[in-house]
Sequence to fold (324 residues):
Amino acid sequence: MAVSSPPATVPPRPRASAAPVKRRRRKVDWRAVGAFTVLTAPVVIGLGVFKYVAIAWSFLLSFNDARGTISIGHWIGFDNYAFLLGDSAFRDSLVVIALFTVFIVPVTFVASLGLAMLVNGIRRGRAFFRTVFLIPGAVSYVVAALVWKMALFNGLPSGVANVIGGLFGADPVPWLSETSPPVYWIAVVTLRLWLQVGLYMILFLAGLQAISPSLYEAGELDGTTKWQAFRYITLPQLRNTSVAVLLLILIGAFQAFDEFYNLFGTGLSGTATAPVKPPLVYLYDSALGDQNYGVGSAGAFLLTVIIVVITLLQGKFVGFGKKD
Fold:
């Protein structure tokens, strides 16, 4: 019986050496480059002249005795910075804004997250409530401050806050000028919350809707409670959103100006002397009130450094930029 031999394997043919591929250089579309340049040039020039040149000029002014002038000529070094650090009014303004920040940041964060979870849990009418809470964010700070000052907390018996207090037997209160106890903080804080909570609620709502429902379904199978689902699923999934919201609230708190300036300005139910001044109101009064542009510029850079340092510290604390 003849045994058939296995078929001989055919060695693979050596591949022919690949011919060098010549890369074709892409032609530059000079028409597109020209159109891009023409369209962006006004914006670039505007930013350069009205922002970066202005910042550089302000930085130079901070080292000059620029009282009543914006010309650079009388160099005094760090005297403006030393004056600010030695001025009790400026230090008090830093204390004011620190207290405001310590209170408004966590309250805004919790209120925004709570509203977002409530709206996210609504099956019908979610778009309506989302719009209702977002509308205040489109209102100007100046307009809102005037409404708070002239209608809600005007201190008159016919003011909304006093009318509500009268229903419970309370006497009329001069809300914006009462310093003992400092009830003016109620007007400042409620105004800031009304303006900002809706905006940050939208950010949290977007984060909540990006969480996969399968995570909650798996949690239900494991018997997790609502609190455990919030603690171990919702919060970790909202980490990046939470970090961004915290940074935005913090920077916005240190930049508070409009509500303080308009609520405590003189005139129609305002106060003759503002009970509190944040740094930006202090610098506004120094630069445009006293015409001391050197002190105003130095204060602006001091405040910028403070905001940057605190933002970096907060970013390091909350793990900004770290991967999950």
The CA atoms of residues 247 and 315 lie 7 Å apart. The chain is about 65% helix and 0% strand. Residues 1-6 have pLDDT under 50 and may be disordered. The radius of gyration is 30 Å.
